[in-house]
Design a protein that fits this description.
This protein is an alpha/beta fold and 204 residues long. It has six helices and nine strands, in the order ααββαβαβαββαβββ. Strands 5-4-3-6-7-8-9 form a seven-stranded mixed beta sheet. Strands 1-2 form a two-stranded antiparallel ribbon.
């Protein structure tokens, strides 16, 4: 079995949906990691992508995608979209009628991810501070924050549709819980919390 097949089998065993497994199967992780790490692309581990940032561990990403409860045709924002790998997975899951937006503060990563995703017609990447979200494209059905922060930024709550779901690693630099909230009547209601993760902090 190839490394990729081993990874896919491991995600299947952990009970992730066919939709999520299908996205991991379709998207080539090696296209999103630096040249010198390509042979490690399918390790179930985070890998450095430069500028102090990482591409998250596949298991962690699958967990976040699962918490988002994505459906075809939805409009999704990822804050801290890095190299664009998660954007490609989101694009695959929401399908051609869905829309995916990434916001990345580090210029080199935003430019590299645009290059990586030039064939994904339903993905747009913006350079900016993710804490402010993307008001001109709001509201979103789903928002994913892919970097650690102490709480959900207010502006992002305002850009989430009612009944929408926001997923983020919340905590301090030493460790976070992956948290899913649903917005009900303008307020966030906790849906699920999974402790024991470590993400790079949100760059401001």
């Amino acid at each position: 079995m190839s490394q990729k097949q081993i990874l896919l089998e491991s995600l299947k065993e952990k009970g992730f949906s066919n939709k999520i497994i299908g996205a991991f199967e379709k998207v080539k992780r090696e296209d999103f990691v630096p040249e010198n790490l390509k042979e490690r692309a399918y390790e179930d581990a985070p890998l450095p992508i430069g500028k102090g940032q990482t591409i998250s561990q596949p298991y962690t990403i699958a967990t976040m995608l699962s918490l988002l409860e994505l459906k075809e045709g939805q409009k999704v924002l990822e804050v801290g979209s890095g190299c664009g790998y998660v954007l490609a997975l989101l694009s695959s899951i929401v399908g051609k009628d869905g829309k995916v937006f990434g916001i990345e503060i580090i210029k080199e990563l935003a430019e590299k991810s645009k290059e990586n995703l030039k064939d994904c017609k339903n993905v747009k990447i913006h350079l900016g501070n993710g804490k402010n979200g993307l008001s001109k494209e709001a509201p979103f059905n789903r928002i994913l924050i892919s970097a650690a922060y102490k709480k959900i930024p207010e502006k992002l709550i305002g850009q989430l549709k009612d009944k929408g779901i926001i997923v983020a690693p919340i905590g301090n630099v030493y460790g976070q819980s992956l948290v899913a909230y649903q917005k009900t009547n303008g307020k966030l209601r906790l849906k699920k919390e999974i402790p024991g993760f470590i993400f790079v902090p949100l760059v401001e």
